[in-house]
Design a protein that fits this description.
The complex is a heterodimer.
Chain A lengths: L1 H16 L1 H28 L8 H26 L1 H6 L2 H7 L4 H8 L6 H18 L5 H32 L11 H6 L9 H10 L2 H4 L1 H7 L11 H6 L2 H13 L7
Helix pairs in contact in A: 2-3, 2-7, 3-6, 3-7, 3-8, 8-12, 8-14
Chain B lengths: L1 H15 L2 H28 L8 H13 L1 H4 L6 H9 L2 H6 L4 H30 L12 H32 L3 H14 L11 H9 L7 H8 L4 H31 L7
The chains are: A mainly alpha, B mainly alpha.
């Protein structure tokens, strides 16, 4: 942990060397996420609700997904950039150091400009909470915290799979974007609006619905099934096969030689 | 002229080499299009009367958008050009007996075209097989198709001319990543990549349509589905030509100014 803090402070200092660029990047991140918000806003100017969800409820859903994603992206960015680490031979250096590989990759890149996105998510979240008049109880707050933790773990696991694929292909594979950016982009609406098939896929194959749709139903009071709040924990189990896949990837690793 | 043509050919053929990447891209874009249509279906069910386009038109819009993504997405910038400016390789480029602006322009167009051609057919093919309101349809007559092609090309020129401005801006800032993100975010929103422009309220929509961003993907995609016709169509084409001229001239001017004071950082 102490070492991670060290990594963190180094990253912070190096980001601050290019202050203007850092500020522009942060604003840019903010604006990119703001676009999606505006998209939702203008859709709701035309339509009063979608499948029974109001604007405020959708905002709440969107902001939670955005928090999950931006946290994961900020800290697990090293895996997102992994194809570069492999192709320039950086990974060889990581392998010979006496520390866990995952830990080192995590520390190699911490993307602080994601603060822009995170900030926006928090703003939207407060607005959504304020407007949607939820009776907060201990259980609902618990559900919310579990959602954020579960989502963070889930997105991190997907980044891990993405990185592992680089062991086999050297290049990152674009179709993985469906699971990362796609989930962030389309997770703005509760998954059920995309129909039953998509919901099934997101429940049993890649468990997005477990960190988004079901606990959200509980928080919004649309369902009284109190088990729903614990479902994000089940989503964390997704990390296990991903980690095994990563181990498999490492054992297959051949240096690119550069 | 001939040297630009051969440069175009070179870049174009080079782009066609990346077939595996294109395949992965097609899968992504197909998933994207499908989710987008499912989302609009949910809104359509909420209130069919409030829907500003025919659903069929929207489906065609979305599939065409996915198929020709490479032509219009501003984030598809060429890192090599940024590198050339930052690392000083631009010195070599300046030694060549070509106009740098024209060369980069041709290069960007070739790059985008080769990507689009590799990707569009499978997506369009699957799109056409889908059941009626969700799939995509052929345009209703030859004139529509003709105008589609014209606006498609004009839109591509507007996009590339705008991207040139982003490249040129990095002469002035050294680290262009921030400006790049800002510009991309702006274009995405105003050009109708987030939601199609007809979904915006009339009071602000006319401003969006006047901006250069409104002359990008908005025009050809709506012409194709028949959403944009008659006098509106002509007005849109005039605007496109106007922005083509303004953006390229502005770009050339700025480029000349930048090149006069360019400092190549040695190394």
């Amino acid at each position: 942990m102490k070492l991670y803090m060290k990594y963190f402070s180094i990253q912070l200092k190096s980001a601050m060397q290019y202050k203007t660029s850092f500020i522009f990047m942060t604003i840019g991140q903010f604006l990119l996420a703001f676009n999606v918000f505006l998209g939702v806003y203008f859709m709701f100017l035309l339509f009063p609700n979608v499948k029974g969800y109001t604007f405020e409820e959708v905002l709440l859903c969107f902001s939670i997904v955005l928090i999950q994603f931006s946290l994961a992206e900020c800290f697990v960015r090293g895996f997102d950039m992994f194809s570069a680490t492999i192709s320039n031979g950086e990974f060889d250096r990581i392998m010979v150091r006496p520390r866990n590989e995952i830990f080192q990759v995590l520390g190699s890149k911490i993307e602080l400009t994601r603060v822009g996105r995170f900030l926006q998510a928090v703003l939207m979240f407060s607005y959504g909470v304020h407007k949607s008049r939820i009776d907060w109880s201990f259980n609902k707050v618990l559900a919310l915290i579990l959602m954020i933790v579960g989502g963070f773990v889930l997105f991190s696991s997907i980044f891990l799979v993405y990185a592992t694929l680089c062991f086999f292909t050297t290049e990152g594979l674009e179709f993985m974007n469906v699971l990362t950016d796609g989930a962030k982009e389309y997770g703005k609406y509760p998954i059920s609006i995309y129909g039953k098939r998509v919901l099934q896929f997101c429940t049993f194959i890649v468990p997005f619905a477990l960190v988004q749709y079901y606990p959200l139903l509980y928080i919004l009071g649309k369902s009284t099934n109190s088990w729903y709040r614990f479902l994000p924990l089940a989503a964390c189990l997704f990390l296990i096969p991903c980690y095994l896949f990563w181990r498999l990837g490492i054992s297959h690793y051949k240096s690119t030689g550069s | 002229m001939q040297k630009y043509v051969s440069f175009f050919r070179l870049r174009f053929l080079y782009g066609l080499q990346y077939r595996a990447a294109a395949l992965a891209g097609i899968v992504t874009q197909f998933a994207w299009g499908a989710l987008e249509i499912l989302m609009f279906t949910a809104f359509y069910e909420a209130d069919p009367l409030a829907f500003p386009m025919k659903f069929q038109d929207l489906s065609s819009y979305i599939w065409m958008q996915q198929a020709f993504l490479a032509l219009y997405m501003t984030w598809l910038l060429e890192n090599e050009i940024f590198h050339a400016i930052q690392k000083g390789d631009i010195a070599y480029e300046l030694c060549r007996p070509v106009n740098l602006y024209n060369m980069w322009f041709v290069r960007s167009i070739a790059n985008r075209l080769s990507k689009a051609i590799l990707r569009c057919f499978p997506i369009l093919f699957i799109g056409i097989l889908l059941p009626k309101p969700y799939g995509f349809t052929v345009p209703k007559d030859m004139t529509t198709f003709f105008f589609f092609l014209v606006t498609l090309i004009l839109a591509l020129i507007v996009v590339v001319a705008f991207c040139m401005l982003i490249y040129i801006s990095s002469f002035y800032t050294v680290s262009a990543a921030g400006i790049r993100l800002l510009a991309v975010a702006m274009v995405e929103f105003f050009s109708g990549a987030v939601i199609p422009l007809p979904f915006f309220p009339d009071s602000i929509r006319w401003v969006f349509e006047l901006l250069p961003f409104g002359s990008m993907q908005n025009v050809p995609l709506r012409v194709y589905s028949g959403n944009l016709q008659g006098a509106h169509l002509l007005r849109a084409i005039v605007l496109q030509v106007f922005w083509c001229v303004v953006l390229t001239c502005g770009g050339k001017l700025l480029m000349n100014k930048a090149l006069k004071r360019v400092v190549v950082q040695g190394g």
